[in-house]
Design a protein that fits this description.
Blueprint (H helix, E strand, L loop, with lengths): L9 H13 L4 H19 L9 H12 L14 H18 L23 H13 L3 H12 L3 H5 L6 E2 L4 E4 L1 E7 L9 E7 L7 E4 L5 H7 L17 H14 L7 H9 L5 H8 L14 H10 L1 H8 L3 H8 L3 H8 L7 H12 L5 H6 L5 H7 L3
Helix pairs in contact: 1-2, 1-4, 2-4, 3-4, 5-11, 5-13, 6-10, 12-16, 14-15
């Protein structure tokens, strides 16, 4: 800038500051900044000298907006909570930019701010992998990729099959999708779905797909199409993805998953791929013919899948031991493979898991209740 930024108007400083932010921000974030500046800040401070805007000026502006004056007064209601903190923060950041000073402190957090997200526990990862294996869908594929490759929700929704190399087991992440406010033109709603190139080189990357997930990807792979597609091969809205995943979990009585926990688990290196390998890559003995009642195979197969089934139901080893009529120690020995599962214990577990909505479909898909056994258990 040729002249000192402190000598220009606050409106000019705001325009320069927004131009700087647009280079690094996602479209939806930039639009929210621009909207805040144009709607709430410039009507009050636009004509002032940038050097005259201080922290006290920002507090006066916040108080005015809280009282419902100016632009906020159109609805007769003032701004509240985070909206006021956002206005204060943007005002001070523009003023600091104009005066060539460091940015001020971050806006104050709310007293009722939620607790930070925690990583998924190994038991939760195992339960999630087991569920994904036996309830295949595009949404569960997306969740597996988020957990084990670190791809974000918006990036997963923008992922084209052309960005995937099955031979090299790689995905090239260079785009994302977000819902942004529209300009209100004819035939447009309040928001539109926009696919955009990631703004910085550090965000563009290539990730390796775990070998166990390659068959899962192949199931939905179609060149030229989006991997997780919406209607008419349009990219799926991230909100729609979240709604579908929540409905899938709810229908199968699974705990609702927050996508922030997936991201945190990956970033902190807690996404244990050995769990994925054990769940997706485990080689199981061939299922006997449905007309053959193989007691030994059924008992061993039930024992090998006992822990994932228990996790799907959400019971502790102690609670399962109580149900089976054995001690917690004895139950753990069965689950860990230190003791064989006898036939009467198999029948008790089959009755429990097959008549539980969370695990009935899994029991059927694993062949744990063959036709020969169903016929034998029928009561004339």
């Amino acid at each position: 800038m040729e002249k000192q930024t402190a000598d220009i108007s606050f409106a000019e400083a705001a325009a320069l500051w927004l131009a700087e932010q647009e280079k690094t921000l996602r479209p939806a974030t930039y639009v929210s900044y621009q909207r805040c500046v144009n709607r709430h800040i410039l009507p009050h401070l636009g004509d002032r000298k940038a050097k005259d805007v201080t922290r006290r000026t920002a507090e006066e502006l916040v108080n005015s907006l809280a009282a419902g004056t100016g632009e906020a007064g159109r609805t007769g209601k003032g701004l509240r909570g985070n909206s006021l903190a956002f206005v204060r923060d943007i005002t001070l950041r523009i003023a600091a930019f104009a005066k060539r000073k460091d940015a001020p402190e971050a806006p104050e957090t709310r007293a009722d701010e939620k607790r930070p997200y925690t990583c998924l526990a190994p038991q939760e990862i195992e339960r999630l992998c087991f569920f994904a294996k036996h309830h295949p869908s595009r949404e569960m594929l997306g969740i597996m990729l988020m957990l084990f490759t670190g791809i974000r929700l918006g990036e997963a929704c923008a992922l084209s099959c052309d960005d995937i190399s099955l031979a090299r087991r790689e995905i090239h992440i260079h785009r994302s999708v977000q819902r942004v406010r529209s300009d209100g033109g004819p035939g447009q709603g309040k928001t539109t779905l926009e696919v955009y190139e990631l703004p910085t080189k550090s965000q563009i990357r290539t990730e390796t797909i775990p070998a166990e997930l390659v068959p899962y990807v192949k199931r939905y792979y179609a060149p030229g199409l989006f991997l997780i597609a919406g209607k008419r091969n349009a990219p799926l809205d991230p909100r729609t993805f979240q709604y579908r995943a929540a409905r899938l979990f709810e229908e199968n009585q699974m705990p609702v998953l927050t996508f922030q926990r997936l991201r945190k688990t990956y970033v902190e290196g807690r996404a244990d791929r050995s769990i994925l390998a054990a769940t997706f890559g485990a080689k199981k003995p061939p299922t006997p013919y449905s007309s053959v009642l193989d007691h030994q195979w059924l008992a061993e197969e039930m024992r090998s899948d006992l822990k994932p089934l228990r996790l799907l139901v959400g019971l502790t080893p102690e609670e399962m031991g109580d149900y089976m009529g054995v001690s917690e120690c004895s139950y753990r020995d069965i689950e860990d493979g230190k003791r064989a599962l006898v036939w009467n214990e198999y029948i008790a577990l089959l009755f429990f898991f097959h008549y539980n909505a969370k695990t009935k479909g899994v029991v059927d898909s694993l062949g744990l209740y063959p036709a020969a056994l169903q016929e034998k258990m029928e009561i004339a």
